[in-house]
Amino acid sequence: METIGFGFWNWVALVLYLLLMLCIGAFFTKRAGKDTDSFFTASGRLPAWVVGFSIYATTLSAITFMSTPEKSFLTDWSYIAGNVAIVAIIPLLIYFYIPFFKKLRVTSAYEYLEARFNPAVRVIGSLLFVLFHLGRIAIVIYLPTLAITSVSDINPYVVASLVGLLCIVYTFLGGFEGVVWSDFIQGVILLGGALVIIIMGITHIDGGFSSVVSDAVENKKLLSIDNWKLNATAAAIPIIFLGSVFNNLQQYTASQDVVQRYQASESLKETSQSIWTNGLLAIISAPLFYGMGTVLYVFYAQHQTLPENFNTSSIVPYFILTEMPPFVAGLLIAAIFAAAQSTISSSLNSIAACLSVDIKQRFFGKKSEKAEVRFARFATVAVGLVGMLISLYLIAADSNDIWDLFLLITGLFGVPIAGIFAVGIFTKRTHGVGVIVGIIVAVIASYFLQGIGGAGSPFYVSILAFVIAFVVAYVASLIIPQPKKDIAGLTIFDKHGEVTYQSKQH
Q: Which segments cross the bilayer (predicted)?
Protein backbone atom coordinates (compact mmCIF):
# COMPACT_ATOMS: atom_id res chain seq x y z
CA MET A 1 0.00 0.00 0.00
CA GLU A 2 1.27 3.46 -0.86
CA THR A 3 2.13 5.43 2.28
CA ILE A 4 1.19 9.04 3.02
CA GLY A 5 3.63 11.77 3.96
CA PHE A 6 3.04 12.93 7.54
CA GLY A 7 3.59 16.61 6.78
CA PHE A 8 5.22 19.53 8.61
CA TRP A 9 2.10 20.89 10.39
CA ASN A 10 1.11 17.45 11.61
CA TRP A 11 4.57 17.09 13.13
CA VAL A 12 4.14 20.48 14.82
CA ALA A 13 0.84 19.41 16.42
CA LEU A 14 2.28 16.07 17.53
CA VAL A 15 5.45 17.58 19.01
CA LEU A 16 3.40 20.18 20.93
CA TYR A 17 1.34 17.39 22.49
CA LEU A 18 4.44 15.37 23.41
CA LEU A 19 6.06 18.43 25.00
CA LEU A 20 2.90 19.03 27.05
CA MET A 21 3.14 15.50 28.47
CA LEU A 22 6.78 16.05 29.41
CA CYS A 23 5.89 19.33 31.12
CA ILE A 24 3.28 17.60 33.27
CA GLY A 25 5.81 15.02 34.42
CA ALA A 26 8.37 17.73 35.15
CA PHE A 27 5.82 19.82 37.09
CA PHE A 28 5.18 17.03 39.64
CA THR A 29 8.80 15.81 39.88
CA LYS A 30 9.62 17.37 43.26
CA ARG A 31 6.33 16.37 44.90
CA ALA A 32 6.57 12.80 43.55
CA GLY A 33 10.08 12.39 44.94
CA LYS A 34 9.05 13.26 48.50
CA ASP A 35 8.20 9.67 49.57
CA THR A 36 6.72 6.42 48.23
CA ASP A 37 3.23 7.41 49.35
CA SER A 38 3.47 10.44 47.06
CA PHE A 39 5.07 8.48 44.21
CA PHE A 40 2.43 5.69 44.26
CA THR A 41 -0.81 7.28 45.58
CA ALA A 42 -0.24 11.09 45.60
CA SER A 43 -0.82 10.82 49.38
CA GLY A 44 -4.59 10.63 48.80
CA ARG A 45 -4.88 14.29 47.84
CA LEU A 46 -6.43 14.01 44.35
CA PRO A 47 -10.05 15.09 43.67
CA ALA A 48 -12.56 12.33 42.93
CA TRP A 49 -13.46 13.58 39.45
CA VAL A 50 -9.88 13.54 38.16
CA VAL A 51 -9.30 10.07 39.66
CA GLY A 52 -12.45 8.86 37.89
CA PHE A 53 -11.20 10.32 34.63
CA SER A 54 -7.86 8.63 35.21
CA ILE A 55 -9.50 5.23 35.79
CA TYR A 56 -11.46 5.72 32.57
CA ALA A 57 -8.38 6.66 30.51
CA THR A 58 -6.32 3.84 32.01
CA THR A 59 -8.83 1.05 31.40
CA LEU A 60 -9.83 2.04 27.84
CA SER A 61 -6.93 3.80 26.13
CA ALA A 62 -5.45 2.76 22.78
CA ILE A 63 -7.40 -0.47 22.54
CA THR A 64 -10.58 1.61 22.61
CA PHE A 65 -9.43 4.20 20.10
CA MET A 66 -8.13 1.68 17.57
CA SER A 67 -9.86 -1.66 17.99
CA THR A 68 -13.38 -0.58 18.96
CA PRO A 69 -13.99 1.40 15.74
CA GLU A 70 -12.45 -1.49 13.78
CA LYS A 71 -14.89 -3.93 15.43
CA SER A 72 -17.93 -1.81 14.54
CA PHE A 73 -16.49 -1.15 11.04
CA LEU A 74 -16.17 -4.89 10.38
CA THR A 75 -19.14 -6.20 12.38
CA ASP A 76 -21.57 -4.29 14.63
CA TRP A 77 -22.07 -2.70 18.07
CA SER A 78 -22.39 -5.95 20.03
CA TYR A 79 -19.22 -5.33 22.04
CA ILE A 80 -20.91 -2.26 23.57
CA ALA A 81 -22.25 -4.75 26.13
CA GLY A 82 -18.77 -4.52 27.68
CA ASN A 83 -19.32 -0.84 28.49
CA VAL A 84 -22.66 -1.64 30.10
CA ALA A 85 -20.90 -4.31 32.18
CA ILE A 86 -18.62 -1.63 33.68
CA VAL A 87 -21.62 0.23 35.11
CA ALA A 88 -23.30 -3.01 36.18
CA ILE A 89 -20.45 -3.96 38.55
CA ILE A 90 -20.10 -0.52 40.21
CA PRO A 91 -22.54 -1.25 43.10
CA LEU A 92 -20.69 -4.54 43.66
CA LEU A 93 -17.36 -2.69 43.83
CA ILE A 94 -18.58 0.01 46.20
CA TYR A 95 -20.39 -2.30 48.61
CA PHE A 96 -18.20 -5.42 48.62
CA TYR A 97 -14.67 -4.70 47.38
CA ILE A 98 -13.46 -1.13 47.88
CA PRO A 99 -14.15 -1.04 51.67
CA PHE A 100 -11.49 -3.72 52.19
CA PHE A 101 -8.85 -1.85 50.20
CA LYS A 102 -9.70 1.42 51.99
CA LYS A 103 -9.69 -0.26 55.41
CA LEU A 104 -6.25 -1.79 54.89
CA ARG A 105 -4.84 1.45 53.40
CA VAL A 106 -2.90 -0.70 50.94
CA THR A 107 -0.51 0.66 48.32
CA SER A 108 -0.63 -2.67 46.49
CA ALA A 109 -3.88 -4.54 45.88
CA TYR A 110 -2.09 -7.78 46.67
CA GLU A 111 -1.46 -6.81 50.28
CA TYR A 112 -5.06 -7.92 50.84
CA LEU A 113 -4.12 -11.39 49.57
CA GLU A 114 -1.41 -11.73 52.22
CA ALA A 115 -3.75 -10.47 54.93
CA ARG A 116 -6.45 -12.94 53.87
CA PHE A 117 -4.27 -15.91 52.83
CA ASN A 118 -0.45 -15.86 53.01
CA PRO A 119 2.63 -14.13 51.51
CA ALA A 120 2.93 -16.67 48.67
CA VAL A 121 -0.53 -15.80 47.31
CA ARG A 122 0.38 -12.12 47.48
CA VAL A 123 3.57 -12.68 45.47
CA ILE A 124 1.80 -14.87 42.90
CA GLY A 125 -0.94 -12.27 42.40
CA SER A 126 1.59 -9.46 42.13
CA LEU A 127 3.86 -11.28 39.68
CA LEU A 128 0.93 -12.34 37.48
CA PHE A 129 -0.09 -8.69 37.35
CA VAL A 130 3.46 -7.69 36.37
CA LEU A 131 3.54 -10.31 33.58
CA PHE A 132 0.13 -9.30 32.27
CA HIS A 133 0.97 -5.59 32.23
CA LEU A 134 4.33 -6.12 30.57
CA GLY A 135 2.33 -7.66 27.73
CA ARG A 136 -0.20 -4.86 27.92
CA ILE A 137 2.49 -2.18 27.66
CA ALA A 138 3.91 -3.90 24.59
CA ILE A 139 0.49 -4.13 22.93
CA VAL A 140 -0.44 -0.51 23.52
CA ILE A 141 2.92 0.68 22.20
CA TYR A 142 2.46 -1.57 19.20
CA LEU A 143 -1.08 -0.35 18.38
CA PRO A 144 -0.33 3.33 17.70
CA THR A 145 2.85 2.30 15.93
CA LEU A 146 0.85 0.06 13.62
CA ALA A 147 -1.76 2.79 13.20
CA ILE A 148 0.65 5.48 12.12
CA THR A 149 3.36 3.63 10.23
CA SER A 150 1.09 1.43 8.10
CA VAL A 151 -0.41 4.52 6.46
CA SER A 152 2.51 6.94 6.63
CA ASP A 153 6.19 6.97 5.73
CA ILE A 154 7.49 6.98 9.32
CA ASN A 155 9.79 4.18 10.55
CA PRO A 156 7.79 1.93 12.96
CA TYR A 157 10.78 1.25 15.20
CA VAL A 158 11.32 4.99 15.67
CA VAL A 159 7.65 5.53 16.59
CA ALA A 160 7.57 2.63 19.08
CA SER A 161 10.78 3.82 20.71
CA LEU A 162 9.48 7.40 20.89
CA VAL A 163 6.17 6.37 22.52
CA GLY A 164 7.90 4.06 24.99
CA LEU A 165 10.74 6.37 25.98
CA LEU A 166 8.49 9.40 26.42
CA CYS A 167 6.16 7.46 28.75
CA ILE A 168 9.12 6.22 30.76
CA VAL A 169 10.45 9.77 31.18
CA TYR A 170 7.26 11.48 32.35
CA THR A 171 6.25 8.56 34.59
CA PHE A 172 9.77 8.55 36.05
CA LEU A 173 9.52 12.28 36.76
CA GLY A 174 5.94 12.85 37.88
CA GLY A 175 5.07 9.61 39.64
CA PHE A 176 1.42 8.76 40.28
CA GLU A 177 0.20 12.36 40.47
CA GLY A 178 1.78 13.21 37.13
CA VAL A 179 0.27 10.03 35.64
CA VAL A 180 -3.25 10.87 36.86
CA TRP A 181 -3.23 14.46 35.59
CA SER A 182 -1.75 13.40 32.25
CA ASP A 183 -4.48 10.71 32.12
CA PHE A 184 -7.07 13.47 32.47
CA ILE A 185 -5.63 15.49 29.58
CA GLN A 186 -5.21 12.36 27.47
CA GLY A 187 -8.81 11.33 28.19
CA VAL A 188 -10.09 14.72 27.03
CA ILE A 189 -7.99 14.47 23.84
CA LEU A 190 -9.25 10.90 23.34
CA LEU A 191 -12.94 11.87 23.54
CA GLY A 192 -12.47 15.09 21.59
CA GLY A 193 -10.62 13.26 18.82
CA ALA A 194 -13.39 10.67 18.48
CA LEU A 195 -16.04 13.40 18.26
CA VAL A 196 -14.12 15.34 15.60
CA ILE A 197 -13.68 12.20 13.47
CA ILE A 198 -17.43 11.46 13.64
CA ILE A 199 -18.41 15.02 12.74
CA MET A 200 -15.89 15.23 9.88
CA GLY A 201 -16.93 11.81 8.61
CA ILE A 202 -20.64 12.70 8.57
CA THR A 203 -19.95 15.97 6.70
CA HIS A 204 -18.16 13.95 3.99
CA ILE A 205 -21.05 11.48 3.56
CA ASP A 206 -23.80 12.11 1.00
CA GLY A 207 -27.02 12.45 2.96
CA GLY A 208 -25.20 13.09 6.23
CA PHE A 209 -26.41 11.57 9.48
CA SER A 210 -29.61 10.08 8.02
CA SER A 211 -27.54 8.11 5.48
CA VAL A 212 -25.31 6.79 8.26
CA VAL A 213 -28.32 5.52 10.22
CA SER A 214 -30.16 4.02 7.23
CA ASP A 215 -27.07 2.31 5.80
CA ALA A 216 -26.06 0.99 9.23
CA VAL A 217 -29.53 -0.47 9.89
CA GLU A 218 -29.78 -1.95 6.40
CA ASN A 219 -26.40 -3.70 6.72
CA LYS A 220 -26.89 -4.78 10.36
CA LYS A 221 -24.00 -2.59 11.52
CA LEU A 222 -25.69 -1.58 14.79
CA LEU A 223 -27.53 -4.29 16.76
CA SER A 224 -29.92 -6.95 15.51
CA ILE A 225 -31.89 -9.90 16.85
CA ASP A 226 -28.98 -12.15 15.81
CA ASN A 227 -26.83 -10.58 18.52
CA TRP A 228 -29.05 -12.13 21.21
CA LYS A 229 -28.77 -15.71 19.88
CA LEU A 230 -26.10 -17.81 21.58
CA ASN A 231 -25.65 -20.06 18.51
CA ALA A 232 -25.62 -17.28 15.91
CA THR A 233 -22.66 -16.25 13.80
CA ALA A 234 -22.99 -12.69 15.12
CA ALA A 235 -21.39 -11.96 18.49
CA ALA A 236 -23.80 -12.92 21.28
CA ILE A 237 -24.52 -9.98 23.59
CA PRO A 238 -25.28 -12.15 26.68
CA ILE A 239 -21.87 -13.86 26.43
CA ILE A 240 -20.08 -10.58 25.73
CA PHE A 241 -21.81 -8.97 28.73
CA LEU A 242 -21.11 -11.85 31.11
CA GLY A 243 -17.51 -12.25 29.91
CA SER A 244 -17.00 -8.49 30.27
CA VAL A 245 -18.34 -8.60 33.84
CA PHE A 246 -15.54 -11.00 34.77
CA ASN A 247 -12.94 -9.10 32.73
CA ASN A 248 -14.00 -5.90 34.48
CA LEU A 249 -13.95 -7.57 37.89
CA GLN A 250 -10.34 -8.43 37.13
CA GLN A 251 -9.64 -4.83 36.14
CA TYR A 252 -11.41 -3.17 39.08
CA THR A 253 -10.70 -5.63 41.91
CA ALA A 254 -7.48 -7.49 41.09
CA SER A 255 -5.49 -5.08 38.92
CA GLN A 256 -3.02 -2.80 40.66
CA ASP A 257 -3.36 0.07 38.16
CA VAL A 258 -7.02 0.63 39.16
CA VAL A 259 -6.92 -0.44 42.82
CA GLN A 260 -4.01 1.98 43.32
CA ARG A 261 -6.43 4.79 42.43
CA TYR A 262 -8.78 3.85 45.27
CA GLN A 263 -6.18 5.27 47.65
CA ALA A 264 -5.83 8.53 45.67
CA SER A 265 -8.89 10.00 47.42
CA GLU A 266 -9.25 10.31 51.18
CA SER A 267 -12.71 8.86 51.87
CA LEU A 268 -14.84 5.95 50.70
CA LYS A 269 -17.41 8.48 49.50
CA GLU A 270 -14.84 10.20 47.24
CA THR A 271 -13.63 6.87 45.90
CA SER A 272 -17.24 5.90 45.12
CA GLN A 273 -17.67 9.19 43.27
CA SER A 274 -14.57 8.48 41.18
CA ILE A 275 -15.92 5.03 40.25
CA TRP A 276 -19.26 6.51 39.18
CA THR A 277 -17.43 9.20 37.17
CA ASN A 278 -15.57 6.43 35.35
CA GLY A 279 -18.84 4.54 34.72
CA LEU A 280 -20.52 7.66 33.33
CA LEU A 281 -17.59 8.27 30.98
CA ALA A 282 -17.68 4.63 29.83
CA ILE A 283 -21.36 4.98 28.86
CA ILE A 284 -20.95 8.41 27.24
CA SER A 285 -17.91 7.36 25.23
CA ALA A 286 -19.34 4.06 23.94
CA PRO A 287 -21.48 5.61 21.15
CA LEU A 288 -18.48 7.77 20.18
CA PHE A 289 -16.07 4.89 19.61
CA TYR A 290 -18.57 2.48 18.05
CA GLY A 291 -20.07 5.36 16.09
CA MET A 292 -16.64 6.13 14.67
CA GLY A 293 -16.45 2.70 13.08
CA THR A 294 -20.00 2.91 11.72
CA VAL A 295 -19.41 6.36 10.20
CA LEU A 296 -16.19 5.14 8.58
CA TYR A 297 -18.01 2.06 7.21
CA VAL A 298 -20.66 4.23 5.51
CA PHE A 299 -18.04 6.73 4.31
CA TYR A 300 -15.88 4.10 2.60
CA ALA A 301 -18.95 2.24 1.27
CA GLN A 302 -19.85 5.47 -0.55
CA HIS A 303 -16.38 6.58 -1.60
CA GLN A 304 -14.70 3.19 -2.21
CA THR A 305 -11.28 4.72 -1.59
CA LEU A 306 -9.68 2.06 0.62
CA PRO A 307 -6.57 0.52 -0.96
CA GLU A 308 -6.60 -3.13 -1.98
CA ASN A 309 -5.77 -5.60 0.85
CA PHE A 310 -6.09 -2.78 3.38
CA ASN A 311 -5.40 -3.68 7.04
CA THR A 312 -8.52 -2.48 8.87
CA SER A 313 -6.55 -2.05 12.12
CA SER A 314 -5.36 1.21 10.54
CA ILE A 315 -8.78 2.45 9.44
CA VAL A 316 -8.84 5.38 11.91
CA PRO A 317 -5.38 6.87 11.18
CA TYR A 318 -5.86 6.31 7.45
CA PHE A 319 -9.04 8.39 7.53
CA ILE A 320 -7.31 11.04 9.64
CA LEU A 321 -4.30 11.42 7.34
CA THR A 322 -6.24 11.31 4.07
CA GLU A 323 -9.36 13.35 4.95
CA MET A 324 -8.34 15.79 7.70
CA PRO A 325 -6.60 19.14 7.14
CA PRO A 326 -2.96 19.52 8.29
CA PHE A 327 -2.41 20.25 12.00
CA VAL A 328 -5.91 18.91 12.79
CA ALA A 329 -4.73 15.53 11.53
CA GLY A 330 -1.63 15.87 13.72
CA LEU A 331 -3.80 16.58 16.78
CA LEU A 332 -5.93 13.52 16.04
CA ILE A 333 -2.83 11.35 15.64
CA ALA A 334 -1.81 12.80 19.01
CA ALA A 335 -5.12 11.41 20.33
CA ILE A 336 -3.88 7.94 19.36
CA PHE A 337 -0.65 8.63 21.23
CA ALA A 338 -2.74 9.87 24.18
CA ALA A 339 -4.77 6.66 24.10
CA ALA A 340 -1.61 4.59 24.34
CA GLN A 341 0.23 6.70 26.88
CA SER A 342 -2.58 6.85 29.46
CA THR A 343 -2.37 3.06 29.73
CA ILE A 344 1.40 2.73 29.49
CA SER A 345 2.18 5.31 32.18
CA SER A 346 -0.37 3.78 34.58
CA SER A 347 1.04 0.30 33.98
CA LEU A 348 4.60 1.53 34.56
CA ASN A 349 3.74 3.21 37.87
CA SER A 350 1.64 0.28 39.12
CA ILE A 351 4.24 -2.35 38.17
CA ALA A 352 6.84 -0.27 40.01
CA ALA A 353 4.49 -0.25 43.02
CA CYS A 354 4.18 -4.04 42.95
CA LEU A 355 7.92 -4.59 42.63
CA SER A 356 8.61 -2.05 45.39
CA VAL A 357 5.91 -2.92 47.92
CA ASP A 358 5.20 -6.62 47.29
CA ILE A 359 8.74 -7.78 46.60
CA LYS A 360 11.44 -5.35 47.65
CA GLN A 361 9.91 -3.88 50.84
CA ARG A 362 8.08 -7.06 51.87
CA PHE A 363 11.13 -9.36 51.76
CA PHE A 364 14.18 -7.08 51.87
CA GLY A 365 12.95 -4.30 54.13
CA LYS A 366 12.22 -0.62 53.68
CA LYS A 367 15.03 1.92 53.71
CA SER A 368 14.72 5.71 53.68
CA GLU A 369 11.87 7.24 51.68
CA LYS A 370 14.35 8.79 49.23
CA ALA A 371 15.97 5.40 48.63
CA GLU A 372 12.57 3.77 48.08
CA VAL A 373 11.59 6.42 45.53
CA ARG A 374 14.92 5.86 43.73
CA PHE A 375 14.16 2.12 43.57
CA ALA A 376 10.64 2.83 42.25
CA ARG A 377 12.03 5.11 39.56
CA PHE A 378 14.65 2.54 38.59
CA ALA A 379 11.89 -0.10 38.35
CA THR A 380 9.85 2.26 36.15
CA VAL A 381 12.74 2.62 33.70
CA ALA A 382 13.61 -1.11 33.67
CA VAL A 383 10.00 -2.25 33.14
CA GLY A 384 9.39 0.39 30.49
CA LEU A 385 12.41 -0.70 28.49
CA VAL A 386 11.37 -4.38 28.66
CA GLY A 387 7.83 -3.52 27.49
CA MET A 388 9.24 -1.42 24.68
CA LEU A 389 11.52 -4.27 23.52
CA ILE A 390 8.53 -6.65 23.46
CA SER A 391 6.65 -4.13 21.32
CA LEU A 392 9.58 -4.00 18.88
CA TYR A 393 9.36 -7.79 18.65
CA LEU A 394 5.63 -7.53 17.84
CA ILE A 395 6.48 -5.10 15.04
CA ALA A 396 9.13 -7.43 13.65
CA ALA A 397 6.69 -10.38 13.84
CA ASP A 398 3.93 -8.33 12.15
CA SER A 399 1.34 -9.44 14.73
CA ASN A 400 -2.40 -9.09 13.99
CA ASP A 401 -5.75 -9.39 15.79
CA ILE A 402 -4.48 -7.54 18.85
CA TRP A 403 -7.93 -7.02 20.42
CA ASP A 404 -8.58 -10.76 20.85
CA LEU A 405 -4.95 -11.32 21.85
CA PHE A 406 -5.37 -8.79 24.66
CA LEU A 407 -8.62 -10.40 25.86
CA LEU A 408 -7.01 -13.84 25.82
CA ILE A 409 -4.04 -12.60 27.87
CA THR A 410 -6.52 -11.09 30.35
CA GLY A 411 -8.33 -14.40 30.67
CA LEU A 412 -5.11 -16.34 31.11
CA PHE A 413 -3.26 -14.17 33.63
CA GLY A 414 -5.72 -11.65 35.03
CA VAL A 415 -9.15 -13.20 35.54
CA PRO A 416 -8.04 -16.14 37.78
CA ILE A 417 -6.69 -13.60 40.28
CA ALA A 418 -10.08 -11.84 40.27
CA GLY A 419 -11.59 -15.21 41.22
CA ILE A 420 -9.14 -15.43 44.11
CA PHE A 421 -10.06 -11.97 45.44
CA ALA A 422 -13.72 -12.98 45.24
CA VAL A 423 -13.26 -16.30 47.05
CA GLY A 424 -11.30 -14.46 49.76
CA ILE A 425 -14.00 -11.85 50.31
CA PHE A 426 -17.11 -14.03 49.95
CA THR A 427 -16.04 -17.22 51.78
CA LYS A 428 -14.53 -17.91 55.20
CA ARG A 429 -13.13 -21.43 54.83
CA THR A 430 -10.75 -20.84 51.90
CA HIS A 431 -7.05 -20.86 52.76
CA GLY A 432 -3.74 -20.05 51.04
CA VAL A 433 -2.79 -23.54 49.81
CA GLY A 434 -6.26 -24.08 48.32
CA VAL A 435 -6.04 -20.72 46.58
CA ILE A 436 -2.68 -21.56 44.99
CA VAL A 437 -4.17 -24.81 43.68
CA GLY A 438 -7.10 -22.79 42.28
CA ILE A 439 -4.79 -20.33 40.49
CA ILE A 440 -2.69 -23.11 38.91
CA VAL A 441 -5.73 -25.08 37.69
CA ALA A 442 -7.42 -21.93 36.33
CA VAL A 443 -4.36 -20.73 34.40
CA ILE A 444 -3.77 -24.20 32.88
CA ALA A 445 -7.46 -24.56 32.03
CA SER A 446 -7.52 -21.08 30.44
CA TYR A 447 -4.54 -21.95 28.28
CA PHE A 448 -6.13 -25.12 26.87
CA LEU A 449 -9.62 -23.60 26.55
CA GLN A 450 -8.28 -21.01 24.10
CA GLY A 451 -7.99 -23.60 21.34
CA ILE A 452 -11.26 -25.51 21.81
CA GLY A 453 -13.84 -24.40 19.24
CA GLY A 454 -16.43 -21.92 20.50
CA ALA A 455 -15.12 -22.27 24.05
CA GLY A 456 -11.98 -20.55 22.84
CA SER A 457 -13.79 -17.20 22.66
CA PRO A 458 -12.04 -14.70 24.95
CA PHE A 459 -15.33 -14.08 26.76
CA TYR A 460 -15.93 -17.80 27.44
CA VAL A 461 -12.34 -18.09 28.65
CA SER A 462 -12.85 -15.18 31.06
CA ILE A 463 -16.06 -16.64 32.50
CA LEU A 464 -14.57 -20.11 32.95
CA ALA A 465 -11.24 -18.82 34.32
CA PHE A 466 -13.04 -16.89 37.08
CA VAL A 467 -15.41 -19.75 37.97
CA ILE A 468 -12.65 -22.40 37.91
CA ALA A 469 -10.34 -20.33 40.14
CA PHE A 470 -13.15 -19.65 42.63
CA VAL A 471 -14.57 -23.19 42.79
CA VAL A 472 -11.26 -25.08 42.77
CA ALA A 473 -9.78 -22.80 45.45
CA TYR A 474 -12.81 -23.35 47.68
CA VAL A 475 -13.03 -27.12 47.17
CA ALA A 476 -9.26 -27.59 47.58
CA SER A 477 -9.43 -25.64 50.85
CA LEU A 478 -12.11 -28.00 52.14
CA ILE A 479 -9.99 -31.05 51.23
CA ILE A 480 -6.48 -29.90 52.19
CA PRO A 481 -6.02 -29.37 55.96
CA GLN A 482 -4.40 -26.10 57.07
CA PRO A 483 -3.96 -24.35 60.45
CA LYS A 484 -6.70 -21.82 61.17
CA LYS A 485 -5.80 -18.21 60.30
CA ASP A 486 -7.15 -15.02 61.89
CA ILE A 487 -9.21 -13.36 59.13
CA ALA A 488 -11.07 -10.84 61.29
CA GLY A 489 -12.46 -7.98 59.19
CA LEU A 490 -11.29 -9.53 55.89
CA THR A 491 -14.49 -11.19 54.60
CA ILE A 492 -17.93 -9.88 53.76
CA PHE A 493 -19.26 -11.64 56.85
CA ASP A 494 -17.22 -9.27 59.03
CA LYS A 495 -16.86 -6.27 56.73
CA HIS A 496 -16.91 -3.69 59.53
CA GLY A 497 -14.67 -5.64 61.90
CA GLU A 498 -11.19 -4.61 62.96
CA VAL A 499 -8.28 -6.01 60.93
CA THR A 500 -5.44 -7.65 62.86
CA TYR A 501 -3.08 -7.86 59.86
CA GLN A 502 -0.02 -5.61 59.85
CA SER A 503 1.90 -5.16 56.58
CA LYS A 504 5.45 -6.53 56.89
CA GLN A 505 7.49 -3.96 55.00
CA HIS A 506 9.91 -2.75 57.61
A: 6-28, 48-67, 79-98, 119-142, 154-173, 185-205, 228-246, 279-300, 327-355, 375-396, 402-426, 433-453, 459-480
